[in-house]
């Protein structure tokens, strides 16, 4: 099997991964700038969408309660981190892939640090309603639920693809990941604890972390 020598030039896929990571990072920074500057069209769209979904949430208590269960238990960031921890143990015990296990744990940890740092820097207030259906703490941007789900699901999907799982397992994993990432973002908007751009920011930043982590892993283990 061909292996790259120390003096080999970077492979084309490395350049593609780097460019993709850069584009995602640029989009994330652009959205962050618009949120921090309180760009009027964005703030107006956030308010219109959030107001509409909040009225629906108040009128649909059964669906709202289902969203609370999903967001608080199934798609909670700590649930996602426990899933990541299980994957780390599997990598160490069953695959003897200690470097990849450490890479996965570090990528998720750095994603959390990035998320909390941006929250503190932007300090965006959450939506306030006279008749709230749920509550949340800390600043709004980006959505921690959306970003954590994107990072964990994205990295685990890439690892499954890398290990060559069967077609049925792969399709099931992609479907579960897509429903989880999209679903958790929509529940945060529905419950009135995030503006739509908070969720979009979580998705963008989470995808950026995944792309950067995959790029680093490919550099270390082509």
Automatic annotation (TrEMBL):
Domain of life: Bacteria
SMART domains on file: acidPPc
CDD domains: PAP2_like_2
Segments passing through the bilayer: 20-39, 78-93, 100-118, 138-160, 172-193, 199-216
Any Pfam family the entry gives: PAP2
Alphabetical keyword list: Membrane, Transmembrane, Transmembrane helix
Phosphatidic acid phosphatase type 2/haloperoxidase domain segment(s): 100-214
Family annotation (SUPFAM superfamilies): Acid phosphatase/Vanadium-dependent haloperoxidase
InterPro entries, alphabetized: PAP2/HPO, PAP2/HPO_sf
Official protein name in the record: Phosphatase PAP2 family protein
């Amino acid at each position: 099997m061909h292996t790259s020598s120390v003096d080999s030039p970077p492979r084309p896929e490395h350049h593609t991964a780097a460019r993709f990571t850069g584009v995602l990072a640029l989009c994330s920074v652009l959205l962050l700038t618009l949120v921090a500057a309180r760009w009027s069209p964005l703030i107006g769209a956030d308010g219109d969408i959030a107001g509409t979904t909040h009225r629906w949430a108040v009128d649909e208590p059964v669906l709202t309660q289902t969203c609370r269960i999903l967001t608080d238990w199934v798609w909670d960031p700590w649930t996602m981190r426990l899933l990541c921890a299980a994957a780390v143990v599997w990598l160490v015990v069953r695959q003897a892939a200690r470097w990849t296990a450490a890479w996965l744990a570090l990528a998720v940890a750095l994603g959390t640090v990035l998320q909390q740092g941006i929250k503190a820097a932007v300090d965006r207030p959450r939506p306030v309603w006279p008749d709230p259906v749920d509550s949340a703490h800390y600043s709004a941007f980006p959505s921690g639920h959306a970003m954590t789900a994107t990072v964990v699901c994205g990295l685990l999907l890439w690892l499954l693809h890398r290990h060559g799982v069967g077609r049925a397992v792969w399709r099931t994993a992609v479907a579960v990941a897509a429903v989880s990432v999209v679903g958790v973002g929509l529940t945060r908007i529905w419950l009135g604890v995030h503006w739509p751009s908070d969720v979009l920011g979580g998705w963008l930043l989470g995808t950026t972390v995944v792309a950067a982590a995959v790029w680093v892993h490919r550099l270390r283990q082509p």
